[in-house]
Design goal:
single chain, alpha/beta, Methyltransferase, Methionine Synthase (B12-binding Domains), Chain A, domain 1, Rossmann fold, 2 domains, 9 helices
């Protein structure tokens, strides 16, 4: 992340400490009055989310904090995204289509939301189908939308079985070879990836974006 100036450090702190009013006021001031780079502000948000995630894992924060963190991120994102400049006359081409959802039995969405958000600002077309998504919903969406990548998210260990079941269903439908599958969230590692049959796992949103870029033939 490199060095942060005082103001940037303050924003990360407000976000990580759940000081919603102060965080939103500062983010708005940076973006709308001071012309801070929107991608930089989003990167600071991501930094803060990493801290929130760690505190959640350590039992210092609970679900309400995760929900609030997600809401703050969405609010700031809604201000920052329109400010990201594209070269004149250049409509950003979409790199590919990513379908993302939290597998059935799991209600966590903060990680998924951050991944969806990061993919979006990196030029992917994203369809987020929410939490606790049944296998058939994934299959219906894949059939109608034809994504390049399917992201399965899950924070709980029981989600690993849901991921395995979802990917097995893709096999049964004969569609498994038509897209790449990435998994993410919580305690996911190579063992879990092998167990579920996914193509790859992302430890965080940046890795997830890099995976999708690599699969679409874009240098990360």
């Amino acid at each position: 992340m490199g060095d942060m100036n005082e103001q940037e450090g303050q924003l990360v702190e407000f976000l990580a400490e759940m000081q919603e009013d102060e965080a939103l006021e500062l983010a708005k001031r940076m973006l709308l009055e001071e012309g801070a780079a929107p991608l930089r502000v989003l990167e600071l948000c991501r930094n803060a989310m990493d801290i929130v995630g760690k505190r959640f894992e350590e039992g210092e924060y609970f679900l309400p904090e995760l929900v609030l963190a997600g809401e703050m991120l969405e609010t700031i994102g809604a201000i920052a995204k329109p400010l990201i400049k594209h070269a004149p006359g250049e409509e950003p081409k979409k790199l590919g289509k990513v379908l993302i959802g939290t597998v059935h039995g799991d209600l966590h969405d903060i990680g998924k939301n951050i991944v969806a958000f990061m993919l979006d600002i990196n030029g992917f077309e994203v369809r987020d189908i929410g939490i606790d998504v049944p296998v058939n919903s994934f299959i219906d969406e894949i059939n109608t939308w034809q994504p390049d990548v399917v992201g399965l998210s899950g924070f709980l260990t029981l989600a690993f079985d849901s991921m395995k079941e979802t990917i097995a269903a893709f096999e049964q439908q004969g569609m498994r070879g038509k897209f790449k599958v990435m998994i993410g969230g919580g305690q996911i590692d190579e063992t879990v990836r092998a167990y579920t049959g996914a193509d790859a796992f992302g430890v965080n949103a940046v890795e997830a974006v890099n995976l999708c870029k690599a699969w679409m033939g874009e240098a990360a």
